Amino acid sequence: MKKKMRLLAPILAITLALSACGGGGDGKDAQGSGTTGEGAEAKDTITALLPPVSPNFQDSFAQLEKDFNALYPNLTLKIEPASWEDMTQKLDTQVNAGSPPDIAFIGSGGLSKYAEQGMLMDITDVATTEMVEDFDEAPLEYMKLDDKLYGFPGYMEVHAIGGNKEFLEEAGIDYKKVQKEGWTYEEFREQIKKGVVKEGDETSRYGFVFATAGVASKDYLNILIKNAGMPHAFDENMKYAYTHKNFLEVLKAIREMIDDGSMPKELSSIDAGKRWNMFLTGQTMITGKGLATFENSAKLNNEKIKANDGSAVQGSIPVEYIVLPVPTFLGEKQQASVAVDGYVAFRGKKEPTPEHKENVVKAAYFLASGKVAATTNNDLFAAHITESGREAAKDMPIDRNPDNVAAVETLLSQATPARPDIPTDLAAKAIKLEDEVIIPKLQALLAGETTPEEMYEAVKSAAVQAFGEDGIVK
What we know:
Mean pLDDT: 90
Shape: globular
Number of helices: 19
Number of strands: 11
Order of helices and strands: HEHEHEHHHEEEHHHEEHHHEHEEHHHHHH
Low-confidence stretches: 1-38
Distance between the termini: 37 Å
């Protein structure tokens, strides 16, 4: 069901306002001469900082700029590429300088951080009803804080885990049943033990490997705790949730899987690239974080192996990727972790002109809908979240395992709902606590340098300091 929204700002205000340039971009045209003429038809440049949203996304930047200009001859879309690794640093540098891009592709979890700095642009009044109603309601809610809309979602991607079909079958795991019904942590732990292959004291294959270093440092814990009854950092009473006793139990589970040999002892040093290489080379039965696009990545590597042209991952084997749910803890229900990332509108220190604001929204919608969204999401094997994207995708063939399609749909139906009601100041404090306490302590826990109990007490102490004795779950 689409959520109806009306334009809140009268059109008269947009057409009459001719104040100085603002926004993340400066309202200048391609020659840097500044906005010319009046209204939204004046020449204008919209800047965008974009990572490799899908494997082929950045290769299309020149064409995207050309297509946008063909759609809006008076507008120029100027895209700056960034890697996932340096995306946050680049954006933060520009934000701190007071001159962010007009649009940046970021995770919805980062909205509160930039809203607290006053650098997000509320587009509620200029996003047309037609634009808004094109999006599925659930992912669009992730782009809001306090009912203010700050951008358009690019995808709603399930964070699952993924298995090697051959190894799962060798271990006697009924993966089709697991896809439909899920599994508890106790069941999961016993199953991943079956995937371990040892040669003497050396382990040649682990049951489970998860990327926990670099940009993936926070993923592992965040995925697990959602399935332990803590879908968000705050409960419905706005109490900080990660002081709940279940948080400690998840920390114990993290150590258990390393200590019993199901996961590598050097887990804290495994980044996303190494994790995927270990999966493709047969060094693990199950990998995480698993995304739908991994099925496509595995298929492409299989084709390279078959071609024997040396372009496949060194030492890799043919792999059929199977989507699996994250296990649940302590009798809690499945609450699938989802990544809702999107094209978020930023503003500079100056108030953006109504014309520039309108143009930024046009560019964000162009990137998040229709053919652009259909191409990107098909490349990712992600579900389409706009009507225009679904329509455009009808003529784009895609080869997917039907069991994986069904598994992703099941997980999307169990997705953690958005919480736009969490105040930005609380959310910003939670992010700070995560960055300064939880992630460093988690790395120490993975490395065996601290215990689950010590980490739990450190998080609890920091939470009391940040939110007060009455601001935490007890």
